[in-house]
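hi!! sorry for the late reply, been swamped w classes. u asked for the two structures so here they r. pasted raw, havent cleaned anything up. first the sequence of the first protein and right below it the tokens
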Amino acid sequence: MKEKLSFEEAFQELENTVQRLEEGELTLEESMALFERGMELVNYCGQLLDEAELKVKALLPTQGEGYKLVEYSDQEGIS
């Protein structure tokens, strides 16, 4: 995916794509193009969710109160 969409923008486009496909008033070529775009959006949203999960996992509890953000390169060996 070349453009940088926010998760919300990509998910909204995905919802619109699914809705258009479900309506069933498209040619085969249009349906295939929308299906391919939908798959791109699914993969893109999945990637963004994976990145968000890594950031959440990078927040480690401190010995005191609260959490500290650990850089990705410092995460090796952390489970």
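now the second protein. again sequence first, tokens right under
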Amino acid sequence: MTNIIITIFERAFDKGRGLARDMRIRWALEEVGQSYAVKPIPWEAFREAAHLARNPFGQIPTYEEGNLVLFESGAIVLHIAERFPGLLPQDSELRARAIMWIFAALSTIEPPIVDRDVVRHSEAGKDWQLERLAMVDERIRTRLRQLSAHMREAHWLVEAFSAADIIMVHVLRRLEGSGLLEEFPNLAAYIARAEARPAYKRAFEAQLAAFKGAQ
């Protein structure tokens, strides 16, 4: 048994659709069979000393286990994968490749997808919005095209399912409703395959329940 606590939005921006980054942590913990508690943080408390002691940037999620406090969802998922068996290959070369793909998801695939959200929401109504959106979408297509060509018909990024797939699938899910994923059937199938995992379903239901409980 562990005494793991993760912080979550008191009122999630995604309305329980599994897009908030605590979903990555929940999913990883469900995959390795570890129980956890959640600590909802209201928006007004993000800059208070208690939360800044967990994350100096005033963000969520954070992870607490005894004296260990971590922030950054990728680092937390990697810690879980190294702490508990089941999310990283035993073979050293495959393990290194899985870790590489965690960084690729966060550093190469995710940035233009986050930019898309910025353009859609923060730049709404600006004269340049549609032009900027088209440019960002093309950047995303380039990355999806490259990822699709690499994966081909593979089920997972590195042979068996790993922490890399948790991060990559969660990053890609932010494109749902954009029409971009439908251009790459193997990536759409990859996401559907991950969403069918029992651990994913448990994590999704837990995040949805937290949203409904906050209403």
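hope this helps!! also noticed smth abt the second:
The radius of gyration is 17 Å.
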